[in-house]
Design a protein that fits this description.
alpha+beta, 8-stranded parallel β-sheet
């Protein structure tokens, strides 16, 4: 291999990158039933031009190899573990949880670390900046390191037999199903690059090219056309107290105020349930007495709503299906009772598809155009011990996507599914909620939302378009929320209550037809914010995006005191040369290049925003100054001298 080699150090492997130790103290611990658990040490190395095979075989595990393959500097790890067969009627098997654990130690000095792992509720991602990787949280799903001269990205993978997650200085492989005597698959990919964003993207690209990631990357997914327009969701307006009367009151307000909402989501609260379980595919007749079909036809014709979506859970409802209900009887061939006693959709592709197909067929006939599907990362818990969770979740996501493609042209917003077991299992859907719920009643909620979105986007944006969630247009944080959504590169929609919508921060997001101005990718933190928890440390956090050759940068801070900040051109990847930069709020123009950084001050609960336009032959193509993302609007040519005096 070109960059990598392996050395045996007293039965523990050391991986060397370009002559320098990268990882050492590598050995395997197998968690087996009864008293069979054991540590397995390196017994041999076989190296060829394109791979290195590490043999950790043991008397009880005669096949236990880790194969390393290099793809243009990206290193992938594949395990093959097969337990010895016993002839006396019993034997060893891998435990369902962490059946195999690969231990290692990072060798180079670690100057910074950004790791991401699910929150306590497993649906979202939290971020850790602990430099000592031995202290990384359990179930870590992405690690970005700043080493001596390179940035290193570690991405645990989900294969057909198991999912992989990092915990401290170990990588844990979990099948979710006991009595497995074989575990094999590609479980880790590592990329090193001078640019941190490139380290992440190349890791995903190579994993996709080699089928280590078995679903398409974002570039091969189709962004839903309706989400190019401005929308509204019922959740923060009504929560579960949803009704046709309330929705019409809100739509009448939009009409009166000339707010061009083009699509809506009827969130949780429209369907029939009992004790947290689904009872019917149909709408609640007490809340929608005229029926969905009449109601949806009315709001489309009277209020100019082009598309209507509805919410439902990946598992039917939050706690599955209500026994003896209408849906339980109609779908009995597609349901099972779990070992814990819950009635849920059976974990095979055909049964999952049958269930979603029947539900979506009904919704389509009522005039529904798309769905938002929640509770996704909670599904695997239902299938523990039935079969490997990676198999069950992959089947469910394929079934969901296939049904959505059949009935709704592929338009779905995936939600509560940021666990990589879900992210790496979606075969075609394009949009994924990228953060914890927007919480208008939480005074610090904006900064939690900002923190969650920008760091999660670094790796989730490689697979799907990131949805930064809904927001309120009338709120103390409305301007900051509007700018965050503007620069997000994803859908933009509000969840205002009745009587509480204003155009002030909506108008800069959209054109006269209600179309949003969307940038090229998700908003990322600038390089100087990657390895420091700037939000929680009350420092300035800067995020950026681009539209073709043009860029945008926003700055926030939750420090009660005014804080000074600086934007340097080297903090933003692929930005070089000279730019005419416009401060959105003051409308002032300044020169920006390597010799002319931008110095600014940001106040508590305030946002600063700049659009950058490249200077070519003393001319510049300038976007609209009245839109947050002027960089993504139609351009007008002028001389730099007309802007910068």
């Amino acid at each position: 291999m070109k960059h990598y080699s392996v050395v045996d150090v007293n039965g523990r492997a050391m991986i060397v990158f370009d002559g320098k130790a990268l990882l050492d103290n590598i050995y395997i611990h197998a968690n087996l039933n009864r008293y069979y658990s054991r540590d397995c040490f390196l017994s041999g190395i076989k190296q060829t031009d394109n791979e290195i095979i590490l043999d950790f075989a043991d008397v009880l595990i005669p096949t236990l190899t880790v194969t390393l393959k290099e793809y243009d500097g990206v290193l992938q790890f594949t395990i093959d573990a097969q337990l010895k067969e016993f002839n006396n009627g019993f034997g060893a098997y891998f435990t369902s949880d962490r059946g195999i654990v690969l231990h290692y130690r990072l060798c180079p000095e670690n100057k910074g670390c950004l790791s991401s792992s699910p929150w306590w509720d497993r649906f979202w991602q939290a971020h850790c900046f602990e430099k000592d990787i031995s202290k990384l949280p359990v179930v870590t799903q992405s690690v970005l390191l700043s080493l001596d001269e390179k940035h290193c990205h570690l991405l645990p993978l989900t294969c057909e037999m198991f999912r992989s997650e990092i915990s401290g200085s170990s990588l844990e492989m979990t099948s979710g199903c006991s009595a497995r005597t074989k575990m094999s698959g590609t479980f880790l990919t590592i990329s090193l690059a001078e640019d941190p964003y490139h380290a992440i993207s190349e890791n995903f690209v190579k994993a996709g090219q080699t089928n280590a990631i078995r679903v398409p990357l974002k570039k091969k997914r189709v962004y839903p056309e309706i989400l190019e327009k401005f929308g509204w969701c019922s959740w923060n307006a009504f929560y579960t107290d949803l009704s046709s009367e309330g929705v019409c009151q809100k739509l009448e307000e939009f009409r009166q105020k000339k707010i061009p909402v083009k699509w809506i989501i009827l969130d949780d609260g429209w369907l029939q349930s009992c004790d947290g379980r689904l009872t019917s595919f149909r709408e609640d007749p007490n809340k929608f007495p005229e029926g969905f079909r009449t109601f949806i036809s009315r709001i489309k014709s009277e209020y100019g709503i082009e598309k209507v979506g509805v919410w439902h859970a990946f598992t039917g409802y939050w706690d599955g299906i209500q026994p003896n209900s209408e849906v339980a009887k109609d779908q009995k061939e597609n349901l099972i009772v779990t070992p814990g006693g819950s009635l849920v959709i059976a974990p095979t592709y055909q049964q999952q598809f049958n269930f979603f197909d029947a539900w979506h067929s009904y919704l389509e006939k009522q005039g529904i155009d798309f769905v938002k599907v929640d509770n996704q990362s909670g599904a695997s818990d239902y299938y523990n011990e039935l079969l490997p969770s990676s198999i069950a979740i992959a089947a469910a996501h394929k079934a969901l996507d296939d049904s959505v493609n059949k009935h709704f042209g592929g338009c779905v917003i995936n939600c509560m599914g940021m666990n990589m077991e879900n992210v790496l299992a979606r075969p075609s859907s394009a949009v994924n909620r990228n953060s914890y719920d927007y919480a208008p009643g939480n005074t610090a909620g904006f900064y939690i939302h900002l923190w969650d979105n920008i760091y999660s986007a670094l790796f989730h944006d490689q697979i799907q378009y990131c949805d930064y969630d809904m927001w309120w247009s009338v709120h103390d944080n409305a301007c900051m929320n509007a700018v965050l959504r503007a620069i997000s590169g994803g859908p933009i929609y509000i969840s205002d209550e009745v009587g509480k919508s204003e155009l002030t921060y909506i108008a800069p997001l959209i054109d006269e037809a209600g179309c949003i101005y969307r940038c090229d990718h998700a908003a990322y933190p600038t390089k100087d914010c990657l390895y420091e928890d700037v939000i929680r440390e009350n420092k300035v956090v800067k995020i950026f995006n681009r539209s073709d050759k043009n860029f945008a940068v926003a700055a926030f801070c939750q420090n009660p005191e005014d804080v000074n900040g600086t934007i340097h051109i080297e903090e933003i990847p692929e930005m070089s040369g000279s730019y005419a930069a416009q401060d959105y709020f003051s409308k002032k123009w300044i020169l920006f290049d390597a010799e002319h950084p931008i110095h600014f001050k940001v106040k508590f609960n305030e946002v600063r925003l700049w659009n950058f336009y490249p200077i070519e032959d003393k001319r510049v193509q300038v976007g609209r100054a009245d839109k947050f993302m002027g960089c993504a609007t139609a351009k007008t040519e002028c001389f730099v001298s007309e802007l910068i005096k």
